[in-house]
Amino acid sequence: MTVEGAAPYPAQLLNWAGNRSGGVRRLFDSSSGRPGKAVFETNLLHRLEQWTSDIASRPNETPRILLLVGGPGNGKTEAIESTVGWLDASLQCGGELIAGLRQAFFPAEGTAVPRVVRVLADGGSNEGKATLGLSIVQDASAVVDAAGRTAAQLLLDELESSEASTTGEAYLCCVNRGVLDDALIEAIDTNRERSLNLLEAVTRAVSLSPNAARCWPLDGFPTVAVWPMDAESLLLSPEKAGEEPARSLLRTALDSRMWLSPGSCAGGATCPFCGSRERLAREREEGSLLKMLRWYEVASGKRWSFRDLFTLASYLLAGHRVTPRDAALEPCEWAAKQVLQDEQARRGAKPSKEQSTAIFQLVAAQYQHALFHSWDREAGPALLRELKDLDMEDDNTAMGLAWFLSSRRSPYLPAMIADTLEGLSIQLDPALADPDMEIQATTNSRFALRELDVRFSRSVAEGLDYVRRLQVLTRPEVDLLERLAKLDGDLSLGGVRRKRPASATNVQRLVRDFACRLVRRSFGTRTAAALDAPILADFQRVIEDTAGDDLFDVAQEVEQLLNRNQDFEISLTTTFGQPLPPAIRRATLIVPSRSVQPLEIDTVGRPASPICFLMVGDGRSGQPIALTYDLFKAVRELEQGMSMASLPRTVLALLDTTRARLSGPIVRDKIILDRARIRIGSTDTSVVQRRSGFGVRKEGASR
Fold first, then answer.
1. What is the reported pTM?
2. Rounded to an integer, what distance in angstroms lies between the CA atom of residue 300 and that of residue 532?
3. Dist. CA 678–CA 567, nearest whole Å
4. Separation CA 188–CA 196 (nearest Å)
5. Residue 592: in which H helix or E strand, if any?
6. DSSP conformation letters of 379-431
7. Structural domain boundaries of the chain?
8. pLDDT tens digits for 96-105?
9. How far apart are CA 324 and CA 327, in angstroms?
């Protein structure tokens, strides 16, 4: 049963995409950018709600200038609108503040919304009511009525004016990092010292550096508060408890009241979108999806914004049509069209792209295959050539596979999240997960992924028989695998193989690989059996471990990477980035090994850092380094026996950069140099400091 008067999902989910009206929020416009009509709680909203109470009750002790820093899609507009509502209640304005701002942000037709909207929140003269002048800049990049001035110059003027104003004035501004940087440069060029100091403090506070200052209030500026909106993960619960914003968003999209009953849509029982909703409504599948989205965050260092998540939900549950002919179809209508096309192919009609690929499109539209969508770009054209050699151009399944793989050479993902989806597929693809990884397919069935690999490598039919009994695969998936099994069997027949045995073997290998990857992705997405899942889970635990015990263990392992035995080596014959000379011409400064410890980061008045830092060395020569996923993964793989020579370039670059940053302070630190020695060439001869000067000794000999 759907909610009365509401357009049923998944059709309405199309508007959730960031490039449509439902994905872009406009101030005080209830019809825009608020899918499901819900406000998803975040730490910032909780902080703003408290601010509205404080500014009304003790304005002299509360920051008056609020800067919300971040790019588009991070919920800045929602934050402003919620803040205005709470402020209206705190100042007892009876809705007048909201009404005044709504009118200002919806001027007469033909009139642009001003850059700065100012209203007077006047609670009247009754006891307990307060008055506050509020100026709002919804977008600091706007230059409406600027008379030739840049956005950066306007921001500087507004900040200086706000700082000079009385306690009865408040300034709320949404600004992206680009405008913030431009304003900092403008302040330097024009010698605006007060603004320069403020913007430098803001830039430091919203950075991800280990020594970032307090944000709320801004360190050194008690009247200013800033918040980096793109630093916090929407896949973590707010500090005041409650549901993760991403989970709330997903459950809003999956609300059964907004969907037709299963099987009753135009696409029927094989509709991939209604089927995806049914599966994601289960606790295991929902949890696995959110877990993998969080793993992508910790591995890539990127954050899912609200706009990203809205677009992702639209893509997974309503699909993305790339051809103009299909663009006008609602999701379930598109599914019905594919079913009709596939029926023609099933009856043996002459192969055509639309009919032969229909079953592949239906399977690819299911959320697990939409999420992990990548296939070899060269496989399609190569398969077409092989099928032509085998005279199999009249086989709907074979040609459908070739045309489907070829279609992946053209753009087929939503432009707003295409790069993110590509990165996620590369980083987490269950098709590439460790064969020894075990998955809990059902309550009573657990097996290693190797079981799938072995069976599908022998035949698609054997693999299908193994997974069919588990009753986990969807009806379209089983249907497609049955056809691939028949194609696999046909390629084993003497009549086909006799013509071109090499081509038959190549096609058969590709068909089996395709089927195995399809099943791996189906099982893996449901159970979070992703590529490097154990390492990702460990890294997530380290990132989110407030006690720091896990981080301490990692620090000890990184210490072994940086040092050689008990020594730390510095090249004296090259500068950073230059190749080392031949061993015989090298001069290396050797000092005692540098310690590596977890770096404590103060989180009071600022969001929790999405990155962990380690402190290498101590005293004046100590340097912080970021614990990246690549570094963490390298440490884990070295523990499992990987050679140091196989370390990724990113890790080698990080280690080399750290050594270079340590080298400068070390060669100027007399305390460290007292215990240092210089190794010359490839011999075992070293130069050491004696009481009366310098001397030479053999490596390993006592001083």
1. 0.90
2. 13
3. 12
4. 6
5. strand 587-592
6. HHHHHHHHHHHTT-TT-HHHHHHHHHHHHTTS--S-GGGHHHHHHHHHHH-GG
7. 43-228, 245-534, 544-698
8. 888 888 888 7
9. 5
